[in-house]
């Protein structure tokens, strides 16, 4: 999705793609809900320069790179009640983005930390389960 606003993406199965499973770029105010994203050749879910979106109740597993990434000026997003497991990097990464909320997510069996924050100011990280990975919240 690029340049898309106020769209509901729900109930999809996204699997075995060569690139990111679900990519949202330069898109604001969307809801990604109850999707299954697995075995992608890159990230599971990618928000890049995408603000005010909600990522809710998705299952993200077995992707070759990270699970969910919020990067490059993706501000004011809510990532809630997602299950991320067994992907090749960080479960949930927020980098160079502000005012994001990570609430009630499960991030297990990652090859890196459960949640990583890098230049992620003014956010909320609450009630997440980040066991069984090399690092918890970094």
Largest sheet: 6 strands, parallel
First CA to last CA: what distance? 29 Å
Strand content: 35-45%
Helix-strand sequence: EEEEEEEEEEEEEEEEE
Q: Which secondary-structure class do the elements indicate?
A: mainly beta
Secondary structure: number of strands: 17
Name the poorly predicted regions. none
Shape: globular
What does this protein structure show overall?
- The chain is mostly beta strands.
- It is 0% helix and 42% strand.
- It is built from no helices and 17 strands.
- It has strands at residues 8-10, 13-15, 22-25, 31-33, 36-38, 45-48, 54-56, 59-61, 68-71, 78-80, 83-85, 92-95, 101-103, 106-108, 113-118, 124-126, 135-137.
- The strands form three sheets. It has a six-stranded parallel beta sheet, with no helix packed on it.
- The chain starts with 7 loop residues before the first strand and ends with a strand.
- The mean pLDDT is 94.
Keywords:
single chain, 138 residues, mainly beta, 6-stranded parallel beta sheet, 17 strands
